[in-house]
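Quick one: structure tokens for this chain, please?
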Amino acid sequence: MQNDYIREWLPYREDFLHILLDLEAPPLPRICKICQKDGVYRCPDCMHQPLLCTNCCRTTHASHPFHRIQQWTGNFFEDSALHMTGLQLHLGHGGAPCPSASANEAPPLSGQSQPTTAGKDGDQTKGDRQDTPTMDDDEWEDVDNIPLHLRPPVGSKHLTIVDVTGVHFVLVRPCQCPNAESYPLQLFRAKLCPSTFDKPSTAFTFSVLDDFLRDNVECGTSGMNYYSKLRRVTSNVFPHLVVDRYRELLRVARQWRLLKLLKWSGFQDNMNPSKDGDLVIFCAACPQPGINVGPTANLDESWKYTRAVVMDGNFKAEHMHERRPDDQVWLMDGRGFMVRNPPYQAYLKATPHITEKSSCNNHKAISQASASHGKLNSTGVGATACARHGCFYLHSVVDFQKGERQLNMDYSLTHALSYNMTGIENVLCFYDINCAYMKNLRRHIESSDLLHLPPSLRITAGIGMWHVHGHKKECYTRYSPLFIKGAGWVDGEIIETLWSTLNIVSASTRGMTSPHRQELLDFQMNDSNFMKMIRMADSLSRKLKTARASVVLARDTFERFNKAITPEQQRNWGRQEETALLRRVHDPSVMDVFEIQLKKAPTVHAVELRLLEKSPRQGVHHGAASWITRGLAIEEAEIILNIYRKDNGPNPSELKRLTIARRAEKLSADRSRFIADGRIYLRVDDEFERSDESDGRTDLTLGQDTLDDEDAVSNDGYSDSSLVEVFGRASSNDPTSPYLPLPSKFGSAYCKAKKLHRLAQMELELRMGQANDALHGLRLALADKAVIFRGVVRPATNYSMRTRAWQMIHSIDTSVKQCAAIYRQCRLAMISLGADSDILDRYQELQKSHLSATAAAFTQGAHDHRDSHLPWFWTMDIPKDTDSKSWLSEFYRIHWLRAKAAKDRWEEENELVTSEFVWVVNFFQYRAKRWNEIYMAKKLAGNRGAACYAARQQAVYDRLAEQAELIWQGMNPDDNPFHHGM
């Protein structure tokens, strides 16, 4: 579509260029549009850029003093300025000259301008800031070479005014009436914000300040970059000669942010006692008693009123040490999202950091909690947000002094949960490391005099769907939102999207003072919450549509499972779920019921541990079991890489080629280290050392051209080969070499002859564990594939759903191929190691037909399955006393529980979003009512301006409430759950 429009434009290209050049010339005849005199000036900012004489240009721009004009030289138009026409800006009296002004006041000067002396703070008096640009010695230019329109006028009361159209010099005439306001207030009433207040010489228009703030929050434009743009707007050829008002811009922008927040919050002054977070807004859709939840709501008994929060740290928002930390001016400390500084510093001094060891994986947030960064005053920030809508919590954002320590996040969470929680007793808290964090939360709070949480508050811990897969396997069922009652369909990761918004400005705050940084981050977070608020109804409508469609699919999937089991199984499994959900707050381990409970055959790691705990076998070096396990892992990685290489075809993308190259490089290094260690465990004599012609590096491209499901393994490597042959092939640069110096590569006969039979027996035991792992993974993958076929692929009603479903199937197929290839390689090794008939009967040959038989099991009840319908690995005795149907029954139990969990979450989501629609409308109506109260109070007090603004704000929230109701009614024509006047 875009290309079609470009093609339509191409025939006009020459005509447009011709017109563009024609606009460079004056009209003929060259006369003033108004008085018909000689036309000297034209204004490109005015429509049709009219040609005007000096007098008409001055008078027509009395109401547009910040337009940029051009002057005719006889050959072309060059940049000029309105102050050169004698334009004056009169304050008061509606822009007319003050009648009390002296009649003998000197007229403005419009001739050659002279340079002024330098000073500071923008005051143009003796010792004031220099308006003439400063330059290095090697770039010095005579002032006479500066274009006239860029030279500050001298000898008159001019003001340097910064506008979106650039930097201007304007002669300002203040009102001199006896009752006139002070000069700074007169400027401000003219929508000019002065940079100083004694004898101001620089002011910023409201327009430029609004534009800077808008650029800052939307584009992340820093003050330096923004002012650099203004200098180019002023003069694209000589931007370096435009006066520098960058520092003044930063200072005035701080004041402007505070004034805007005070205005938006309904304040008229800053003298009232302030409250934490009183200048910013919170989420419109979260339940807030007294605001969007009425007094009749049963907050304690209804799960819908649970507060869902998510915590996280952001290490992009760094802050450097300050040069003068004691000389700071805090404009809004604690009145936004960042916590009040003095109490937070007192808390940090009073609270020792206790290093905790996690029983889960070595998470970065824990391992680097004490990491110190000497050059940084703050290494980042930690925050709490609502988990369902992604709005920052008021007065809960904290600075990190080192890493992401628990004491920092405790302060954030407790302050977040102190905001408008009256009557709410349930909290769902997501955090990346909740498996470790929640163990110590209550103890830390009870031991601190500066933290408080109500003892009756019930906090359910969760981990986001993306992070939970980086934890131990047990954490998935214990902390995944899928298994949390009342969570709805939430991923617990929404705060990650908020960091991208905050990071727009975080880089520019690195070197700011602490108050300036706090104000800027608060303003950015408030803008994020505001944008969420005005779009909340649209967001909820999309969620509701998704929930309604997903509820149908989830119920259908669950019913299919429900029909396949007996009523007794339904009751037993239902009781298991109910008991686990009731006890999970106090003991998350009860959620393990959602995992397979059968005692699995020993894994390769279990076998390794058993071998290591045993007394060392005679003739075997210490650590031999771990060395063999490393070899098995390298072998598996090679198989997986070869399958990945084949699946991506002969011409993969550059990114995938890079992935293959990196994995191959890592495998090559692992392989080299394994071979070097193998010389110790296999007792290789010096006479077998190879020459230095090989460096041991290998290009792992085994079978990449002909690899299929069974070609991922090779039988060539298993034979009665000698140590010299195996080490020679393993260390060669032959890209097709399948050799690793494991006992299975030599064969059982050679191992006995060389007294390596004990090492061979260790490998056989580990191979059995490896086979158990592969078969277990194969069963789970095939079961998941069958579930997706019946629950997702077949019911899919549109192309998008079918595409996503088949993507899931293809991903599972890859897992099936990997597990099957690993098992086949493992069985070949068992044969080479001399496994007896009992072992080989147990670990039978795997055929391609075995990898698709499980889908048929879903066409009949689980209790009706017969062993003949299933491949051998579904009914193999694991362990010996396991019933042949136990695997299948356990498979149905897990998928029944998980299908029920998905159904329950989607039903909760449907109900939650419906309630959130009501809460959003109530929130807007509450805000409209509050602004109406302000309007009435200001109207009675005679404050017309405040009353008008309050009325405008009331209309805004009335429209937002009306829009939300209309969106709801468009989806639910016969349902109106809204009650006006909550």
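The two ends are 49 Å apart (CA to CA).
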